[in-house]
Amino acid sequence: MIVSNDVQIGRLRPHIDRVFEVADRSTGNLSRAWDATRGAPVFTERGVYTTRGWTEWTQGFQYGNQIYLFDATGSSKWIEQARRSVVQHMYPHLTHTGVHDHGFNNVSTYGNLLRLMKEGRIEHTEWEAEFYRLALRVTGAVQAARFTRLPDALGYVPSFNGAHSLFADTIRSMRALAVSHQLGGVLMGEQDERINLLTRIVQHAETTARYNVYYGEGRDSYDVRGRVVHESLFNVASGSYRAPSSQQGYSPFTTWTRGHAWVLCGYPELLEFFDTIDSSEYQGPAYLATVEEVRARFVEVSRAAADFYIEHTPSDGIPYWDTGAPGLEKLGDWRSKPADPFNPFEPVDSSSAAIGAQGLLRLGRYLMKHANGDSDTADAGRRYYQAGITAAESLFQSPYLPEDADHQGILLHSVYHRPNGWDYEPDETGVPRGEACMWGDYHLLELATYLKREIEEGEYLVFFNV
Fold first, then answer.
1. Which of 93, 219, 283, 399 can bridge 105 by disulfide, Cβ–Cβ 3.0-4.6 Å?
2. Is domain 9-57+155-168+186-456 given the CATH code 1.50.10 in the classification?
């Protein structure tokens, strides 16, 4: 990736405006056409959203898009529609014990609505605010209850695959535990045991950091600093680590870029959250006994992931779907030139960039804020921030925004499940392109809203302002 120091944030303003113009049109197309009895929209085929029954993990993004459209444009039609839809359709996600997706579904909806109410953007009605608070307390506790214990006070929220499976994705569902704790939520266990949600966040985050993220320390033959494995497998009887795995990447020994992006976004976001936590409210395990140790660890993980992203992403900041995808060698020196979503060998995954860019921005801002006169830390922060700006500028323009007025998606050239062949392939090359996905659309709007607020010097966008 070529990090541009020439791109100033204000230069993105017309592109951001264009993002929301496209989003208003495309979200309207989807809203008019979608039958909620089909479940949640997942990805488009020929520009039309379709579903893929798996865990319904995208429904919160569907209504979250409407909330961000209101956030950015003030359009009352979208906030009214979102409020109705959340009440009508989101309640099963609050008590779903079989998934790792609570942060995706419920913080994106109930959390964003409560945030807007706190910011004074929508009318404060106490019963409605308490409804959102209750939902967020519940979702965090339910997510925390899905827990696999490991020796030495480690443990994790397992994926929907089962108790043996730790996904990189789930680091971003720790948001649910964070807002639940912030709102006074607690998980009650056997014999009235009060399970601290901050502690459980740290347990999951440290287990993910140890087993899903690599640091170039010779752990195995493919230990490259900042590389992320999608899934770690454990023997649940003994608690021992068994092997890396990947559901959606090319292999356990390459890096599926969306799994990497979840780590790159999730840890800086938690870093910002723990920056608000006083030491008196934290009772951590011995390996991260203080809030200061938690922050230092999250910086370490975030910087490793950020450096890998910059080193293993094309020049414009848009990744291919897996850094070890076998067809990449046919593209030559693919890192030194912009990503080509129209190539006949391997698909681009723009959704990875939409997620990862936000992580780069947040990490960069955090490091600059906390440099404390250390020029190396400040310089690193500026580099990460500019990397986020570089990727965002690429995403906010052609060919990543649809020109087709009838398209139901917002962000083009995303990939869902390449190994399973779920993505629409428009021609004989067999390479998916030209389609959108619900998480890509959502994270593009979240990224654009984040930057719009930065440009306007508005309230800083965080998930925990509830």
1. 93
2. yes
